[in-house]
Amino acid sequence: MATTVRNDPLRGTATIVLGFGAVALLVWALGGGSGSTVDITGKFMIAVTLVLLLSQLCGRAVRLLRQPPVVGEVLGGLLLGPSVLGLLAPSVQEWLFPAPVKSAVQLTAQLGLVAFIFLLGWEQDVRDLRSSGRAATVVAATCLVIPFGSGLLIGVPLMPALPTAFFLALALSITALPVLARILHDVGMAETRLGRISVSAAVLDDAACWAVLAAILPFAGHHSRSPLTTLAAGVALVAVLVFLVRPLLDVMLRTAPQSAVLTVAVAGALGTAAITEMMGLHSILGAFLFGLVMPRRSVDQEATTQRIKGFTVAVLLPLFFAYIGMNTSLQSVSGQWGLLLLVLFVAIASKFVGGVLGARLAGLDWREAGILGVLMNCRGITELVVANLGLSLGLIDSTMFAILVVVALVTTALTTPALSLLTKRQEVFV
Predict the structure, then answer these.
(1) From the CB of residue 285, how many other CB atoms can be counted at a distance below 10 Å?
(2) Residue 388: is it exposed, middle or buried by C-beta count within 10 angstroms (0-12/13-18/19+)?
(3) Residue 369, helix vs strand vs coil
(4) Does pLDDT of 59 surpass 90?
(5) Could you tell me which residues come within 8 angstroms of residue 271 by beta carbon, excluding any fewer than 6 positions away?
């Protein structure tokens, strides 16, 4: 049964207003003087402080609107970027985020991204799919094929090269498993049949998307090796991880102390991420693969993931959102409203139709099918990860990147109210 938490709206709103005022005053005071002599290390510390405070404030604000915290954290990143701070106070933004600070934020954000993707892989267990069986498989298939095909229909005419069209189609096929799981938990659906089906379908859907991404990257990279050589190296790495590293990890970690499990987990994720980065397959794929081969269903796994997740979610991911915000210029969409609406409509409609069709084929009624269509539309942080990857590799330009950021925000923000309409629930996020 879901737990409803009552908030004092007046006190919560006053806290948010005062917090935003304090942050704004601090930014103005620090960046107002052109003669400031704060060194780069000091500016980096100031930037991190502001990012973390703003992330918490925005997360608190959207909770009052029954939204998952990730929506507010992304909005906090946008506030610090060219879309808001750069538009209203460009000198403050330039003082706060000079090139060396941006580089430091980018590197720290990549560390958080690797940790997040590693945890995403480690927490996926194929054995959990058995409880949902055929329904999850059918929903995952339709929620991948229909959005991917729809993305290709608009991507091929819009994009200059086939890999970029495939990338757009892939971006529209994503479901954000971590955000979906959080929403299901907060509305009391995590242990229901529909909750289990949606999570299992999201696991299968995202696993297929990562596989497609791995196949696209060799054709989109800027390295000297041929795409087939890169793919062959990737297959060889998977074989080594599955048949050599995984058995060794199972033996090593069976009796290892928790501190050793933490060290092996972090070092292994970073090391494998470095290998795939050098292969031209990007670091996030290596982190995801190492997470998949880590031993599961142990007390140490739960304790270790919570330790990594605590620091990653509280500190590193807000810096990733800030980095996304610094690279997102919503002004670039001002002359592309038609394109924005087209991509947004295709993203929502294709995923919803895929969820409904898959659920009906699996024997669920129309109401249950509608709920699954809504749940599978949640894109959240996973969409941002994919969009950031596309921008860094030159697969999409800044305009399409901004559009995908908007798609991630809108589809995630719509999930809870749409779910409330279908389930008649009134839970509040805590």
Answers:
(1) 26
(2) buried
(3) helix
(4) no
(5) 290
The two three-digit tokens of residue 262, written as one number: 């933490």
With cut-offs at 50, 70 and 90, classify the pLDDT of residue 152. Answer: very high
Short-list 245, 241, 242, 220, CA closest to 231: 220
pTM: 0.82
Report the candidate in 115, 87, 111, 113 with the shortest Cα–Cα distance to residue 326: 87
Distance CA 197, CA 375 (A): 10
Angle in degrees, 0-180, between the axes of helices 258-279 and 99-122, rounded to the nearest 10:
110
Q: Does domain 105-423 have CATH number 1.20.1530.20?
A: yes
Task: Give the tens place of pLDDT for each residue, 12-42.
Answer: 556 656 666 665 666 566 555 444 556 788 8
Task: List the chain domain ranges.
Answer: 9-104, 105-423
| The pLDDT of residue 12 | 55
> Phi-psi category of 158—alpha, beta or left, where left has phi over 0 and alpha has psi -120 to 50?
alpha
Closest by CA to 332, choosing from 402, 268, 272, is 402
- Among 104, 99, 105, 92, which Cα is nearest to 36's? 92
DSSP state of 330: G
Give the 3-state secondary structure of residue 248: helix
